[in-house]
TrEMBL record:
Reactions listed under catalytic activity: AMP + H2O = D-ribose 5-phosphate + adenine
InterPro entries reported in the protein's UniProt record: LOG, LOG_fam
Native source species: Methyloprofundus sedimenti
One of the Pfam families matching this protein, by short name: Lysine_decarbox
Record's protein name: Cytokinin riboside 5'-monophosphate phosphoribohydrolase
Keyword terms: Cytokinin biosynthesis, Hydrolase
Single Gene Ontology MF annotation: AMP nucleosidase activity
Similarity remark: Belongs to the LOG family.
Length: 196
């Protein structure tokens, strides 16, 4: 069993079309607080990002925000977090988020959410880390992406072992159960953090 002290959640700075996204973000916050898991996220006060942080704080949870200086004002930086780190660059932001987290979850979001999840999943494939990565597929948001990932597997651009590194669930509690029971596949690292 893994002891999860903190989880990084990638999610949108927009709220999205469906109210289900906000509802599930609140459920995820409750699950994290129930398990005494700290939220690590992008540091904004708007969209799903802000809602998730606010819900965590309202429930008595801990929240670490990490935001680059250039986005601190544009994304409306959250000012009431347990900890707030302002970084010099996006790269520094993502590295610090990775270092402070025991696992990674992508809620519905846009290009940035996908970029962050794909990078951290790639790092798992390369053996840079051995932490669980997953999609919280709320209201079928990621269905077509999941179909495409399966297509990549069929077309032999992704191996089964790599494909299986990405855990997919539609319920926050089920996803966290996978994380608690996660066993990293032994690999020889292709790169280390200094080479990324």
């Amino acid at each position: 069993m893994n002891q999860l002290k903190s989880i990084c959640v990638y999610c949108g700075s927009s709220s999205g079309r469906s109210k289900a996204y906000a509802s599930s973000a609140r459920v995820l916050a409750q699950s994290l607080v129930n398990r005494n898991i700290t939220l690590v996220y992008g540091g904004a006060s708007i969209g799903i990002m802000g809602l998730l942080a606010d819900q965590m704080l309202e429930l008595g949870g801990k929240v670490i925000g990490i935001i680059p200086k250039a986005l601190a004002h544009k994304e409306v930086m959250h000012k009431n977090l347990t900890e707030l780190h302002i970084t010099e660059s996006m790269h520094e932001r993502k590295m610090l988020m990775a270092e402070l987290s025991d696992g990674f979850i992508a809620l519905p979001g846009g290009i940035g959410t996908l970029e962050e999840m794909f990078e951290i999943w790639t790092w798992a494939q390369l053996g840079i880390h051995n932490k669980p990565c997953g999609l919280l597929n709320i209201d079928g948001y990621y269905d077509t992406l999941i179909q495409f990932l399966d297509h990549m597997l069929v077309e032999q651009f992704v191996k089964q072992r790599q494909h299986d590194l990405l855990i997919i669930e539609s319920q926050p509690e089920k996803l966290l159960e996978h994380y608690v029971n996660y066993q990293a596949v032994a690999t020889t690292p292709w790169l280390n953090k200094d080479e990324t």
